[in-house]
Amino acid sequence: MNDTIEIENGILIPSHRTGRGGKSRWADLQIGQSIFFADLDDDRYRSSSSQWGLRQKPPRKFTTRMAEKNGVKGVRVWRIE
């Protein structure tokens, strides 16, 4: 599990999911920013970010994709609204 979470700008969202599936910092993400998790459980991050976002006022929306960073496969979560 990755103990250091880094919020990043400018990472483009792939056009489609490429596969399946911590700590979160959903509250810190601005629209267009993303977080990379060195984990292959896409469903877990999609579910937890979605549920957290729905509880916020106003609601926030996220999307996830399988990704790779520095040769490490994982999941990237973007805030989209």
Walk me through this protein's architecture.
It is a single chain. The chain is an alpha+beta fold. It has one domain. The chain is 16% helix and 27% strand. It contains 1 helix and 4 strands; from the N terminus they run ββαββ. It has a 4-stranded antiparallel beta sheet with strand order 1-2-4-3, with helices on one face. A hairpin with a 2-residue loop joins strand 3 and strand 4.
Give a brief outline of the structure.
Helix content is 16%, strand content 27%. With 81 residues, it is of the alpha+beta class.
Annotation keywords:
4-stranded antiparallel β-sheet; alpha+beta; 1 helix; 81 residues
Strand-helix topology:
Layout: E1 7-8, E2 34-37, H1 42-54, E3 62-69, E4 72-79
Antiparallel strand pairs: 1-2, 2-4, 3-4
The largest pleated sheet is described as: 4 strands, antiparallel
Radius of gyration, CA atoms, in whole angstroms: 12 Å
The tally of strands reads 4
Count of the separate structural domains: 1
Overall SS class: alpha+beta
Gap from first CA to last CA: 27 Å
